Amino acid sequence: MRIVLLGAPGAGKGTQCKRIVGKYGLIHLSSGDILRQERTAGTNLGKKAQGYMDAGALVPDKIIVEMMAGAINKISDSGFVLDGFPRTVNQAVELDKSLASAGQKINAVLNLEINDQLIVRRMAGRRSCQACGAVYHIENLKPKVEGICDNDGSKLVQRPDDNPEVVANRLKTYHQQTEPVVAYYKNNNTVYDIDANKSADEVTAAIFENLDALVSV
Ligand code: AP5
Q: Catalytic residue at 13?
């Protein structure tokens, strides 16, 4: 199964992807996580992406398409769920072309729908583990011990692009450049709209209901 998970920044893509891969045995490919790893490693790609990410803008398509094509090629015969990619119609077209050349296609698109006010609250309270990437929220999804990752005991940190000014830019970028991707997929694929304003468990249940039906066909 090859899935694309769409949604605004902070809609819960990363949170839900971790649950989807756990249940369906898929590989989670997050463009944001890959870019952050490249930055931490100080690679050329990481250096090129840095300014765009810090400003809440999109990294140019050419860089992203090449990076994600490489990541997908490495796992070509496995099922996967894409998180944060594609984010422009051009990226979606390039992804379709690349999959088609290997005789593959996207089987389902999950579209997390959420209102902007809630996004701002979710980003302000997000804390992440730098070691394992686990994501928490100071009110909604608390770790057992405040500020410490349940998985490995590492310190939880706030992402630098979660400050209010950058969040506002990320939201603007989403509405202008990524919302058209939803329309692109609605014309070409099966898209499941999911109400992401609900609790994380309710969102997971709605996703599993749709994916279970897909798997059983
Ligand atoms: P990226 O890392 O992809 O960030 P994003 O899309 O902005 O998404 P987030 O990771 O911020 O949020 P999420 O939806 O995963 O929410 P989460 O589960 O953490 O991209 C970062 C940057 O990289 C971009 O700005 C861009 O510069 C660049 N980039 C990446 N991909 C690119 C591409 N394809 N093209 C060009 N540039 C690209 O949840 C958020 C918080 O809410 C957490 O605290 C969580 O615990 C909590 N939460 C989650 N669900 C719920 C719920 N249902 N109820 C209550 N709380 C919840």
A: yes
Pick the atom of ligand 1 nearest to 126's CA.
Answer: 44
Catalytic residue among 2, 19, 159, 198: 159
pLDDT tens string 7-16: 999 999 999 9
**Average pLDDT score over the chain:** 95
Tell me the two tokens of residue 171: 């939201």
Residue 105 annotated as catalytic: no
Of the residues 36, 87, 122, 127, only one is catalytic, namely: 87
- Whether residue 122 lies in the annotated active site: no
192 backbone dihedrals φ, ψ, rounded to 5°: -105, 115
pLDDT class of 130 with cuts at 50, 70, 90: confident
Q: How many C-beta atoms surround the C-beta of residue 59 within 10 A?
A: 19
pLDDT surpassing 90 at residue 85: yes
| C-alpha–C-alpha distance, residues 31 and 71, integer Å | 9
The pair of structure tokens assigned to 194 is 């999911």
End-to-end CA distance of the chain: 12
